[in-house]
Amino acid sequence: MTYSLQLYTVRKPLEEDLPGTIARVAELGFTKVEPYNFVATADALAEAFAVNGITAPSGHAPLLKDDQDEIFAAAKKLGMTTVIDPFIPAEQWQSAEEIHKTAAGLNAAAKKGAQYGIRVGYHNHAWELESKINGTTALEYFATLLDPELVLEVDTYWVSVGGANAVDVLTSLGERVKYIHIKDGPLTTDTKAQLPAGQGAVPVWDVIGAAKSLEVGVLEFDDYAGDIFDGIAQSLAFLNRGKA
Fold it and tell me: Does the global pTM surpass 0.90?
């Protein structure tokens, strides 16, 4: 199993010292990261990755809002193979009509991405699970509308916060899931309450085991009350120990 770090986790240190933060992430034991909003920082990230032996298989960018050619060009510079749209607002998940629009937009983005040799994906929050369409979650309904080449990055924490069972959802979505976000905590919307992997209410190993076509498990904290680098180190140590 390969683990990556979503760089949003260390967004404040990155803003203060990008090269130093990437070096520290590498020192913790990561060889892979997942950048966010990387167009503006692509050159600096590429340099820091080269120095520290880091690769970025995936990255987050707002494909339905920003210039797709700029996003894919920056992704290619960083060696990414998958660009994931990280956020479609809750109001756009309340009706089948709105979900069809979102799916159509991402299907079109995937065609453009293919010209750059880059795959397109989507990352969920809680509202895609809270909303129901024709008796199923909006996320699962959405998946039925996507072209075959599109992938999903399931944020397993927000699936649970949204009231669904993460193992069941991962099983339902099947081979479409190539990435997951691994995080832990009390399963509330209070991001400051998030905890290192293995210390909260998420059945981490059951979740990882349910993603049968998983390529990379991406560690993330939306926020953390303690020292973020210590939280990351505790999470990675838990994951590296493996399932007991």
Answer: yes
